[in-house]
Known about the structure:
By secondary structure, the protein is an all-alpha fold. It contains ten helices and two strands, in the order H-E-H-H-H-H-E-H-H-H-H-H. It has one domain. Helix content is 75%, strand content 2%. It is globular, with a radius of gyration of 17 Å. It starts with a helix and ends with a helix.
Amino acid sequence: MISQHIHAIERHVTESETITFHDLLHLIGKEANAVVMILLALFALVLSPLPANSLVFGVPLLFLSTMHLVNRDLEAVRLPLVERPMPSSYWRNGIGVARNYAQRLEAWTRPRWPAVLALEGRVPTGLALVFLSLLVLLPIPFVNIPGLIGIIFICLGALQRDGLFVLGGYGLAAAHLAFVAFAKYWLFLS
């Protein structure tokens, strides 16, 4: 599924001289929120030790999570950044590498555990994503890593219809909540 989106983007950048964020959203379609959240979470994981990342990546993740919760798509939002064209040449070199990584990632996921996906809807998933995004906003170094992984698991599981990944994301959200609650309790006792 993800590699299909990347293939559509690859086809667009080879046929066109420019690409806009709106073009990307149109190429990805209704799953754009989840795909963009996965990309933001991956970038935040790679750049995790930098101190400003909790704010830089947490705010957009919280915005997208809230949009997921209230059932709004990114295409409905009109921002000046969305319409700004970028040269397609910037994308041509890296899109093949992204396709290879997406194919590896898809090898791990497959449609399974449909009972979990019956529970997966906008409200439970949206609440879990909003909660994890709020935890990503905490300015405590390396505490946001489990939240980012949980966001990736939930979004990837929802995209690939993999109930095990969605359940893993919910489990990471619960574990992260327990950790933060215990840490606050311990700090207030000492």
